[in-house]
Amino acid sequence: MRETPPKFNPAVLPVEFMKSFEHVDSDEPRHFLYPGQVFVTRDPITISTILGSCAAICLWDRHKRVGGMNHYLLPEGLGDGPNRLRYGNVANPELLERVLALGCETRNLQAKIFGGSSAFAVDLSQSVGSRNVELAESFLRSAGIPVVEREVSGKHGRRLFFQIFDGVTKIKSFDQL
Predict the structure, then answer these.
(1) Residue 144 — left, alpha, or beta (φ > 0 → left; ψ -120 to 50 → alpha)?
(2) Confidence label for 26 from pLDDT (cuts 50, 70 and 90)
(3) Could you give the CA distance from residue 116 to residue 130 in angstroms, rounded to a whole number?
(4) Which residue would you say has higher pLDDT here, 118 or 131?
(5) How many alpha carbons fall within 13 Å on the CB side of residue 106?
(6) Cross-strand pairs, 110
(7) Is 88 helix (H, G, I), strand (E, B) or coil?
(8) Element containing residue 173 per DSSP (H, E)
(9) CA 38, CA 94: separation in Å to the nearest integer?
């Protein structure tokens, strides 16, 4: 019987390994977003992260050219404590609040959703990845923010790049890294 090699799951990577994704041969200003973090900025930089079953929402104000991203691991959890941004029910409102604090208006925001792969799930509709994506879609719908792009689900990890200066996102599948 032939063994199948284990699938790559970025959600379980140690921080030391994740740091290797930070370095990119570029002089362009960048910020690497770890799981359980939210980052917003006015600066014309590129935010990057890696996603498996985790989800990320990118918010961008097309008029002010301001934006941000979150990266959450699980759809729901406690709203307090040092790891509270690991949960979508906390990280999504936090991202919106921080973008609005930079002077953005909800009516000028557009959203992009990424991640939510389900490499190990038998029932894809109940996988953590699917639930993370459903939460993102529900949150944005209730906030009245249109989703203009999404790359979700599947059975592969992704590396996401979000350019704040123009709102452009780029995705690389893990098999392309």
Answers:
(1) left
(2) low
(3) 6
(4) 131
(5) 11
(6) 60
(7) helix
(8) strand 169-173
(9) 8
Q: Domains of the chain by range and CATH?
A: 41-176 (3.30.1330.200)
Q: Which two structure tokens, joined as six digits, stand for 22?
A: 């930070």
> 174 CB contacts (<8 Å, ≥6 apart)?
8, 10, 50, 156, 157, 158, 159
Q: Which helix H or strand E contains 96, and what residues bound it?
A: helix 88-101
Average pLDDT over residues 121-149: 91
Whether the CB-CB separation of 39 and 56 falls below 8 Å is answered with no
Q: Which of 140, 50, 36 is nearest to 91 (CA)?
A: 36
Q: What is the dihedral of CA 68, 73, 76, 81, to 10 degrees?
A: -80
- Model confidence pTM above 0.90: no
Q: How confident is the model at residue 29 (pLDDT cuts 50, 70, 90)?
A: confident
